[in-house]
Design brief:
Blueprint (H helix, E strand, L loop, with lengths): L13 E4 L9 H16 L3 E6 L11 H11 L9 E2 L4 H13 L3 E4 L3 H7 L1 E3 L2 E3 L16 E4 L4 E6 L3 E6 H5 L2 E4 L7 H11 L4 E5 L6 H10 L6 E5 L24 H11 L13 H11 L6
Parallel strand pairs: 1-2, 2-3, 11-12
Antiparallel strand pairs: 4-7, 5-6, 7-10, 8-9
Helix pairs in contact: 1-8, 6-7
The structure holds glutamic acid.
């Protein structure tokens, strides 16, 4: 033991909200933004905003600015600079080199179609069939890179309780570098959550099964792991999750109070009715004072 070294210092709470600029924010995004922000403030911590703009084919021009404008109109006050993933490709490339050096990833020559045809159904899509896991078959060229998904990952979700995932069976070897040369979401998210010293990731329940692969990558990167909490998911009247893909209604920047009030009610916080007719500032003051995650 180093003389004079005490127990490790607790890290300052840092939360984040990380929208993808594939369209405007919707009610489900507001729930995730509010939950992550109010949790961070309850702990006297920082709350950061990151724009996950690593998928140009799915992005909508102007969406990143529109998202930031909406957050401002809704009274969110991020700490520090906004992080844009598109500007951090060197960091992802460096992390990928580290993963290669550990043999935690392999080059893959399979097309998406082949994976869909040969893979088994998993919890979150298709499980990679393993074709290139032990080396590219003769005549094949690397198109993507995948992480080896072995073993079980367990974590204690702040809102859902203990979660256990059989990585090989439920997730499978997952992409870290896509065929278009951009990093895949799991790699970029893991690298950035570590680089931004995020201590708590609060996000929607639809991303619950993204946590095991991201924790696996953080283990390989020898990083301090954040804690995770997955919020209940807002569904549309057909029982589908609200998403930009199924055209969830965008938030209306001209009526922030009503929508924040609705999101707080969705999160079981019971704000007084009168506050739905008041100011954004009054509603935030109430929320800061009364936010209680035990009600979720
Ligand atoms: N950018 C991802 C999304 O909008 C979420 C990232 C995250 O919270 O980890 O679905």
């Amino acid at each position: 033991m180093t003389p004079g070294a005490g127990p490790p210092k607790p890290r300052r709470y840092r939360g984040r909200f990380a929208p993808s600029p594939t369209g405007p924010l919707h009610f489900g995004s507001l729930v995730a933004a509010l939950g992550s922000c109010l949790e961070a403030r309850r702990h006297g911590g920082d709350w950061l905003v990151r724009i996950d703009d690593i998928d140009p084919a799915r992005e909508q021009p102007g969406a990143a600015d529109a998202i930031l404008r909406t957050l401002e109109r809704f009274g969110f006050e991020p700490d520090g600079e906004i992080v844009y993933q598109s500007r951090r490709r060197a960091a992802y490339a460096e992390a990928l080199d580290g993963l290669r050096a550990r043999d935690a990833v392999f080059a893959c020559g399979c097309t998406r179609k082949e994976v869909l045809r040969l893979g088994a159904p998993g919890a979150n899509g298709v499980v990679y069939p393993g074709t290139c896991r032990n080396g590219l078959p003769p005549g094949r060229e690397a198109r993507t890179w995948r992480a080896r998904a072995d073993g079980h990952i367990r974590f204690d979700d702040a809102f859902q309780g203990p979660v256990e995932c059989d990585l090989a069976g439920e997730v499978g070897d997952f992409l870290v570098l896509r065929a278009d040369g951009w990093p895949a979401y799991h790699l970029a998210a893991a690298v950035d959550d570590v680089a931004s010293r995020i201590t708590h990731v609060v996000r929607g329940h639809d991303l619950l099964l993204c946590t095991p692969p991201q924790l696996l990558l953080m283990t390989h990167l020898d990083a301090a792991m954040p804690r995770y909490g997955h919020l209940p998911l807002a569904l549309n009247s057909d029982g589908q999750k609200l998403s930009k893909q199924n055209h969830a209604a965008p938030l209306d920047d001209t009526r922030p109070v009503r929508q924040i009030h609705d999101a707080l009610r969705f999160l079981q916080q019971n704000p007084p009715d009168a506050l739905a007719r008041g100011s954004v500032g009054d509603l935030w003051d109430w929320a800061h004072m009364h936010w209680d995650p035990a009600r979720l």
